[in-house]
Amino acid sequence: MTKNLELCSGKYVGNGYPCFIIAEVGQNHQGNIDIAKMLIETAKKGGADCVKFQKSHLNSKFNAAALARKYHETNSWGETYGDHKSYLEFSVDQFIELQTFAHSINIPFTASPMDEVSLELLNSMDVPFIKIGSGDANNFPLLRKAAETGRPIVLSTGMQSMSSIRNAVSAITEVQRRPRLCLLQCTSSYPTPPNQAHLRVMETFRKEFPDVHIGYSGHEKGYAISLAAVALGAKVIERHITFDKTAKGSDHTCSLEPEEFTRFVKDVREVEAALGNPDKVPLPCEYPVIKKLGKTLVATKDLSAGTILNQSDIVAKVAEPQGISAENILSVIGKKLLKDVKCDESILFHDLLYE
Ligand SMILES: CC(=O)N[C@H](C=O)[C@@H](O)[C@H](O)[C@H](O)COP(=O)(O)O
Ligand SMILES: C=C(OP(=O)(O)O)C(=O)O
Fold first, then answer.
1. Which of the ligands is closest to the CA of residue 132?
2. Residue 1 pLDDT > 70, yes or no?
3. Would you tell me the crossing angle of helices 116-124 and 140-148 to the nearest 10 degrees?
4. Which atom of ligand 1 is nearest to the CA of 73?
5. What is the ipTM of this complex?
6. Is 76 in the pocket of ligand 1 (CB under 6 A)?
7. What is the CATH number of domain 284-353?
8. C-alpha distances out from residue 345 to 50, 153, 305, Å
9. What is the pTM of this model?
């Protein structure tokens, strides 16, 4: 049984707690701090539990050749991948400004450190938990360092095999004996085709890692699949947010626009409410319909007092007055009638002899 995990102050993940929803700004801010702040506001207004960014120290995340790689694509903000990434990267001061802004409107702020320098920065900023993006799920030294901060970890698993995930969980549990960990099923394809979401992997994770909370980081268009993940028990959901799905940038198409994000959060809460509990009982809200349409037992012919009832004497109908509930038919067969009952009249409890 997984132990409940406090991901942000006062906000727990676990059985009986609402699904923790992370609004991922990622790089949908287009390198503009004002847009970034407006997206933080959108996350807050939409009901996210937390807003998240990505943080890279470019020379630590990439080698020189990767930074020098030409990046001539529609979503490119520079000649080379390095130019593109530095256009989208906020400075440390800007990052702290974003955190201060998030706190000023009362929404927890965190980020995915994409290298050890960024991890140290986030740790020094006292973020409530560390998100490890899929690209670092097999970066075991980073995982160990993240675990050493003592902070909870939310780990995405896109692009990974089960064996790399086992090693990732081991790297964390070697440091945190009782892991404070959420593992997110994720497909790193933007947008993810529905048949590539593989939500059933969550079940595989649940069986393999009973001490870990399981969730979903979605990159599909719209949010139907993310709702299905909640129905399948995801305890954490992460989705990108944007002001415009058609904007320039690699992640906008798989992001949710403000109104859509607000609806998503509301729908997640509705799905959670609908999961209810596993006991099957007639519910108080059904009583009026039970009264109007519930079936009870009725005579199929004129029956006289003293008749020993057999199956052909009785039928279940919507009857007035309501008599013996249809489910009791077997216990009524073989009972003796104490009074005459006319064809199509209800058979009532006190019409029968109980010995
Ligand atoms: C794996 C990973 O980090 N994925 C992230 C999270 O989903 C993405 O936001 C990438 O940063 C983004 O798609 C990169 O786009 P470009 O290459 O155009 O900057
Ligand atoms: C890449 C990230 O996450 P995911 O793999 O869940 O998209 C991230 O958090 O930066």
1. 2
2. no
3. 10
4. 18
5. 0.98
6. no
7. 3.90.1210.10
8. 62, 67, 14
9. 0.93
